[in-house]
């Protein structure tokens, strides 16, 4: 992969990781564990069990202090190992989730000997605290010790993800019914969405290369909070939305992924509206493990992964390191579809063959008084015909008579989707005990993702001089040419985009346990993301200062056929040296740095009926700086924009946050006072007060528009050379920006409830309200609010005189508001309810139901996105369209507006049953997921726009079947995924008047896509020498895309609902030493 520079740093990092390691034994399996745990205290034994199983085992309070357990050696299931370790210790355990186990003291049911128990309790309280046995816990949905039992968290361990056959974090979320794939490595370059679906669409650099985001419940990736070990990390460099690039999260470093779709804003921040994703990295590992993986894709999108993990522990501390590297190839589109002509499938309107073609299309170059203006913006002369040689003509010896006005469209399928990429990831975790009750720890996560993709190569709007050896017309021509044959042969350099995304996060902290059950956790986190992108194109225009300009223009007009560019033929007679044609046209650089100081005090106080009250109090102080700059080629040459300094009078805007938070957990009923019908009743109260601060300009600068001058820039005229050219002059900004401070603050409350009428049935319910403050750019601008010198032509659907017509055309004075001092924060109300039933009469059976609803109101959007495309929806918004007392429109404002609502209501139910046979344990599971509602309402009086089952909405429902088989050291998993058909209601615009397209640029007729069923299979086996072999495949029966058309016909498949890698077969080897 010579388009991405090689690094000599990988061997050095590998040696550094290996230096951390001593030889040990480690094997991990969810079902059968090979254990060798010596006799020791309960705490350290449970640490070893947690490390071996991949589960999170949490000790409740002083649990396990001064308790010794017998060792374990042999093969055990996790439940068997826990039962054996905790036998005769007075300890018990329960599963808080599928990957989290809480161990606590067993409660006595009788009160006999009460005085003795009180004396013993008093003695225990006066004893000196035992050393910490577990690292500081990061439990998604709560900061309390042992977690919040009222929260519903979806967890995937590293083993869970491996069994699904995935090798990147992105692939996990592509499989989930509650994650909308709006921005992935296959869709981010093409996807466009309404504001309610996703606002992080190719933002920042406008290219969308090398990024992938999680979009929970189609509420927007900007509203899906990403954490690493419970702490925020920087989003893509230069982006205000702070959406974290999933490609910068190395999967090999992840021990567990927790997803909270409900009510975590009161814990992590007010902007976790769509939900929270918490990546838990690996810790407390001893030994050495090497993994290599090779994936083979039916569409050539192969992937190679290598990772090494090492860890070392000493008496009072440990260090763990993970290093990974992967390489990926792009999708070969031509193995999926072969023509841009979809008329035989979808109808006569669906023809996306290119008007930029080969042989090229030519016309007389425009002249006249402003002829020099058209030198940098080549166009056909008014009334001049567009001509083309017939297919198969080389262009050599052509005469004017050979050209025809009957143009032949070119059927060109873009060769690639996705990109050639290399990723490097390094994660290090170290901890050291200083005495018995104080632990300090440090974490570092570094990742880099480099991407390269070939683009369509066009030679558009070239001016071919009259002296060109292949020009038979005798005058200058404007030419549009697609050098497909030259690109395929390597003669014409390929247009391409490339990017580099890096993220580095450092965290230092200390945990101090005191007073028996209290713990203070203080940490400082610094996270920095950088992003650089460059676009290379065969640009039609050069400036005199560019080094390639002289050669470029010489080739376009050369009378020598061995030198001249030949855009007239089919590419078979191309002799020119075209290396100077490809130049950088766009550069982007972005940087985001966030620094967070957090202090958390947690513990338990005041014993009440069901147990002690759990509490958390703390504060968070966070700053975030964003830098962004562009460099692009304009008519005058290269323009450079320091985005923030030029548009907002600050080089790097800084947003601050101060937050105070608390949690209280009240065990009203528990083991001590359980009674028939109330085995457990737990109430959780949480609140977080967020104060966001911003500093920036609101007006003070007047923009004076530049004129249209005859010497605005220099241009090349064939046969003459460099001349002055007509063009627009730069605008002038006059005045001094008015800088002021803005503060947005509010409180996020949460109430949670856990009720167990019997031990086998749990019912959870929660409510919360959260908010998302406006972005910096939505509150500030150096320019004043001003009246424009033109009117807005608007279709008024509420005009009092519209009569029987749907609307009346009106011309309204237009106010341009680049900022809005009254813009409100976005708000969300969230309700959730969950049921978990594990009947004691049927061991192994489990049934769960989870329901949640989010009402997202006051969403911020630019009104200009709706005045033209959806005037019927925006007509009733008085901030956009002003009316007199009789309802007649009198003016319009272009700027930001708070919209009414986006509603998402979701239900998921799952049933599974585990049973043992002579051939091992089987666990079938069936999950039904359904979106009950998903609609967008622009104003309170507007009709809701239903998104369910449409191109830009979630599937109405999904079915997932899973069968797990475990027999000794052999494990296998079968997955069946079903998603129903949907309606593509945004297929794009008509190109021509044909069929159902009555006018050009009207919406293409919608069509229905088919359903999709895919089957995945994986299997693994552990050998005695520590070698594990895992093999499998995804989409084994190679099912095709449910839609043959996506993104206005740019792709012949829909990558938001179908993985274009097709059938993927893989082999993975892991050697644990």
Outline of the structure:
This protein is mainly β.
What would you note in describing this structure?
This protein has a domain at 31-126: 3-Layer(bab) Sandwich (Phage tail protein beta-alpha-beta fold), CATH 3.55.50. The protein is built from 14 helices and 55 strands. The protein has a 22-stranded antiparallel β-barrel. A 5-stranded mixed β-sheet has the order 8-11-12-9-10. A 4-stranded antiparallel β-sheet has the order 18-17-23-22, with no helix packed on it. A hairpin with a 2-residue loop joins β6 (91-97) and β7 (100-105). The longest helix is centred in the first third of the chain and has 13 residues, at 114-126. The radius of gyration is 32 Å and the shape is globular. The protein starts with 8 loop residues before the first helix and ends with a strand.
